[in-house]
C-alpha cells in the first residue's frame, strides 16, 4: 500500500514518466500535472503530501504557483521541492525565498530526489520529539506544532518551526550550517548550506511579531554559523 502521495508538476512527459516509475518503485502514490492551473486543482482535491514543482511551465511559472500555495492558509505548509534547470544563484534563492523547502537541478538522479523527499516528509511530520518550550514569552508547542506570543499564534513554515524547535532546545550554543543541516534536515540529505541562511532569514522575519520582536534570539556567529540566545534581548 503506497505510504505517501507525491504530485509531479512538469510539462515534459519523459520527466514525469521517469519520476513516476522511480516513485512508484519507492512505494509512493503518484499524481501528475503539466500546468499550474491543473496542479492547483489537484492539490485542493487530492491533498498530496509533497509537490515536485518544475520552474518553467505553460500558463505560468512554478514560482507563480508556489507563491499562491504559500499565500493560502490551507496549502502554506505543503512541502515543495523545485525542479529546475536554472543554476544561477539568484534563481535558486528566489525559489527558497518564496517558500520552497528544497530544490534540485536537472539532470538529477532519482535516488537523490527520493532521499530528499523522504527527509522532507520526516521533517514535516516529526516523531516524538515534542513538548512545550518558552523563552521570554515566546511559546513553542511541540504537540500541536504551533508558536504563540501570549494568546496570539505566530505563522511560520514547517522548516522554520523545526529550526526554532532545535534552537530553543539547544540554547546558547553556536552551530555551523553543516551541523544545522544534520540536526534539522537530517544526515545524508543533499541540501546546500546556503539553504540554511534562507530559512534563518525567514525564521527571523516570522519572529518579528506585532506584540514583540524576537528575531534577535537568532544570532549570527561570525565565522561559525548561528546561535539561539536570549541574553541581551
UniProtKB/TrEMBL annotation:
All copies of domain Response regulatory, residue ranges: 5-121
Residues annotated as carrying 4-aspartylphosphate in the record are 54
Stretches assigned to the OmpR/PhoB-type domain: 130-230
Q: Which UniProt keywords apply?
A: Activator, Cytoplasm, DNA-binding, Phosphate transport, Phosphoprotein, Transcription, Transcription regulation, Transport, Two-component regulatory system
Q: What GO molecular function terms would the record report?
A: phosphorelay response regulator activity; transcription cis-regulatory region binding
Has keyword Transport?
Answer: yes
Q: Which Pfam families does the entry link to?
A: Response_reg (PF00072), Trans_reg_C (PF00486)
Q: What is this protein called?
A: Phosphate regulon transcriptional regulatory protein PhoB
Q: Which organism is it from?
A: Mangrovimicrobium sediminis
Protein's gene: phoB
